[in-house]
Amino acid sequence: MNCKEVNGRLLSYIHGEVTPSEKRLITAHLSACLECTAKLESMESLESRVRRHIQQRAERVAAPASGWQALQARLDKEPVSRSNGFLSALRPPFFGLPLSGWQFAAAAFLVFLALFTLTPAARAQMQAQIQQIAGGWFNFSSPDGQSQAEIGGFSAFTPYHATYLPEGFQLSGMGGSSALDKETITLGYNNQEKFVDLAQSAGTPLEALPQGEHLVLNGSTAVFVEDFARSAQELQEKIPAISIVIEYDYTHTNLLVWDMGEIRLQMLSNLPKDEMVRIAESLAPMQGGRLPAAQTGGGSGWGGLEFLIILLFGWAGIALGLVLATLGLLKRSLPFGIAGLLLGLPFSFYLLATPSGWPFGLSLPLLLGVSAYACSKPGRLKLGWISLILAGAIVLGIFVLTR
Amino acid sequence: MNNMEHIQWIRRSRAGDSRAFAHLYEAYKDLVYRTAYLLLDDPAEAQDALQETFLQAYRALNSYDPRRSAFSTWLYRITVNHCLNRRRARRPLVHLPPAQFESIASPIDLEGEISENLQLQRALEHLSEKLRVVVVLRYFLDLSYAEMAEVLEIPLGTVQSRLNQALQNLRRALQAAKQPGENFGLEEEVSE
Questions:
Q1: Do residue A51 and residue B54 have CB atoms under 8 angstroms apart?
Q2: Which of A7, A170, A214, B92 is a good FRET partner for A188, with 20 to 30 A between their CA atoms?
Q3: What is the CATH number of the domain that holds B103?
């Protein structure tokens, strides 16, 4: 430490308000620097003079003896009821524990959340519920009416499914990805070594159609690319995300690309062109709707909680959380800050489960936590407001992006 | 003072027991009164501040949370806020120019210590509100930096810088008073 640094900390040093390492550094400097030692002594002398003066001045006066009577006369006029029922019930001890009602609620909620996230079955059920709330669930039946399937968690568009399939074809798989800016659903159909892969995506501006033979499909332009790939390897190179199935024959893989409204459809198949076109022309929108609770994993007890979950995990929960956090900072009330944080947790949990939303899912609780902390630390109010504004900006940004 | 006893008194006061509140009043009346006196420089106003502080405390007793701050800290916050509001409501004081100040100080100059105390008192009175409050909290109430930060609802670093600034200003003012004709040194007060 140099003289300037020591000078700036001298008063804190005298008051013992420095860290042990600072204390060592300052003591070491003082033992070697006469100038700073002189300043220390002068500071101590001024301090003791100020202290003596103030103490003497204060001791010359005392509270008037009649003060209490005068005060009591005024207190008697105050309203009698001094308890504020509901809020006083939230003060410790709560259930005999040295916790306030808020802390108790927070602890209970965290235990509940921990139990939930640690149990795989419960977690799967929860995620299904979240997806059901966050996006639409759709169901459709196979062309022969023999089987039913559901797909869900998507909100950008209503997907299509084939109402015509060649003899022996059946649904072999479904997949999808949901990001803030793009959602894609892939349906796979097959019959031994023949296959049809139908990818549908929406969200980003449509790219130009590829080069190929132009066709008219349901009134709009489509492009057919014969022998788009002649081997599994070539197909993999052209579409890295594709899953190769070894049983399939990829030597004549055709591509059919077209748009339906804002949805881009791509069909990859080793069927001949006319069959592909026929399937494409048969596409019909899936039936949108809720998946029956029983099919999400048998949680029959979920029905009554569904409304609560929608509130908690949706915009209502996070909006209320932000309002409470704001009140917490305005009123400098820790319970409000904590309530804001707790209400922000489900929404953050949902964000964590989305491919591009997870950084926000991590940062939201952190920011709301800082804001709650600031509610109880008057000196940290500015930090609290900055955190809360950032959290609000994240929520607003997600709201705008997903509308 | 016994903390458990305090909490009992607070609890009973909340339930409307004015005798319990009388105990709290007795325990703190002098500290509150003297703090107000040091901030307002007027015994009558300090008496008024004492009444108002306890009345406000009584009304707000339900919002006091013993886990967040000591009762004394909470009470001092009410005191300080009341006194500062009171000062702000006053008409601005006319600060005497240095020449006139000297003429007032000179006759008592013969008395050594009295003169020194007067100089110090004048210097204290010339401190800005913000600096004066930290001086009173530190040198009268003996609060730690953390307690001062809590009372004033400002960061710890600001407490430290205000206290430094206050002592610097006092030193300058005292030096200037020793050298007649020189600037009293009070205009140099730097805001943070």
A1: no
A2: A214
A3: 1.10.10.10
Look at the alpha carbons of A55, A61, A67, A71 in this order and tell me if their dihedral is positive or negative.
negative
Interface test with A, best of B10, B19, B34 (most A CBs within 10 A): B34
CATH number, domain of B26, equals: 1.10.1740.10
Identify whether residues B76 and B116 lie together within a single domain.
no
CA distance B94 to chain A (A): 23
pLDDT score, position A301: 42
Which of B29, B163, B170 is closest, CB to CB, to A11? B163
Bridge partner list, A264: A201, A259
Q: Tell me, yes or no, whether B47 lies in a domain.
A: yes
- Bridge partner residues of A258 (DSSP): A222, A265
* Segment A357-367 mean pLDDT: 86
Separation between Cα atoms, residue A279 and residue A198, nearest integer Å: 10
Q: Which residues pair with B89 in a beta bridge?
A: none
Q: With beta carbons less than 8 A apart as the criterion, state whether A322 and A340 touch.
A: yes
Chains A, B: CB pairs < 8 Å:
124
Residue count (chain B): 192
In a domain, B188, yes or no: no
Interior/surface letters A159-196, b for 16+ CB within 10 angstroms, e for the rest: bbbbeebbeebebeeeebbbebeebbbbbbbbeeebbb
Q: Which band of pLDDT confidence, cut at 50, 70 and 90, is reported for residue A297?
A: very low
Q: In A, which residues are within 8 Å of B124 by CB distance?
A: 50, 53-54
First to last CA, chain A: 57
Which has more confidence, A354 or A13? A13
